[in-house]
Amino acid sequence: MSNTLGIRRRIRSVGNVKQITKAMELTAAAKMHRSSSAVLGARPYAIRALSLVRSLEKRGISNHPLLEVRPIKNELLIAFFTDRGMVGSINAQLARSVSQYISQSKNNLDVVIVGKKGAKFVNKSKANVIATYTDIPSKLTFEYTRPISLNARMSFENKEYDLVNVAYNHFASTLTQKPTITQVLPFTDHPDSIITNIDTSADEKVLLEAIIEPDIQTLFNSVLPRLVDQVIFETMLEAQASEYAASMVAMRNATDNAEDLLSDLQLSYNSIRQSSITAEMAEISASIAAMED
């Protein structure tokens, strides 16, 4: 009897855990869809702004501090981790990629950490962390990321850094999040740049014929910094979509494991109950036989 009581308690406990993980899975799925929709919604603005910048460059405007390519001595790396746990291995994978990058870099490298889970990476690495941003809102806003991008832009313009990269988990699909390190500044079509593979040729043809007021340089100086801010915002949106996708998958696996454990526990409970009933029936039969004798 004591065995069955213990198993029944475990069945109730595992059942409660299953309900929690299922609810967390559904919550993460809703947040993932919201974040991925936000990425897709923000992309047309960035593509159009990039088209404008490229068309202005073709008109002969390429004089801006954010475009300056110079010998790399000092480098800044912005790493986007998560604030929350229970997201599978995406933080560990990103930490490995960042650690490998830092160990291979021959430049003076400073690191900006975004997300509380990046603190564990900092403690284990020898990275020179100059700033940490935490308390990431579940619904990411441009206001949250702008100080990050503004500091990166100003540092690059003041020649404190010759290269600015971002490290994040690229949202390839619900099941695949790939650690990625890519260049943001200088804002050029470098092979490692975040903008290199974006095709804007169709929009550029239209914009090349546009009449611009007050003048091309003023427009260029206004659009380019905003575009850099937008690119960093989209990068973090993508990192957040990866976080929620990984969380959804982790909670789904936990729910499946709970179901398997419940099945095993129920089988054990039924087996013990059956043995108990069989023993009771045998005792009754023996008693009846003794009485008949």
Describe the structure.
The chain is of the alpha/beta class. The protein folds into 2 domains: about 1-25 and about 250-280, Helix Hairpins (Orthogonal Bundle), CATH 1.10.287.80; about 30-245, ATP synthase, F1 complex, gamma subunit (Pyruvate Kinase, Chain: A, domain 1, 3-Layer(aba) Sandwich), CATH 3.40.1380. Helix content is about 60%, strand content about 15%. It contains 6 helices and 5 strands, in the order αβαβαβαββαα. The protein has helices at about 1-60, 90-105, 120-125, 140-155, 200-210, 215-290, and strands at about 75-80, 110-115, 130-135, 165-170, 175-185. The protein has a 5-stranded mixed sheet with strand order 3-2-1-4-5, sandwiched between helices. Helix 1 (about 1-60) packs antiparallel against helix 6 (about 215-290). The radius of gyration is 29 Å and the shape is elongated.
Task: Please identify the structural class as seen in this structure.
Answer: alpha/beta
Number of helices: 6
Termini separation: 31 Å
- Listing every helix as H and every strand as E from the N terminus to the C terminus, the arrangement reads HEHEHEHEEHH
- The CATH architecture term of the largest domain is 3-Layer(aba) Sandwich
- What is the helix fraction of residues, given as a range? 55-70%
- What fraction of the residues are assigned to beta strands by DSSP? 5-15%
Round the mean pLDDT to the nearest integer and report it.
78
Rg, Å, rounded: 29 Å
Domains (count): 2
The CATH topology of the largest domain is Pyruvate Kinase, Chain: A, domain 1
Q: What global shape is seen? A: elongated
The CATH H-level homologous superfamily of the largest domain: ATP synthase, F1 complex, gamma subunit
SS elements, strand count: 5
- Uncertain spans, ≥5 residues at pLDDT below 50? none
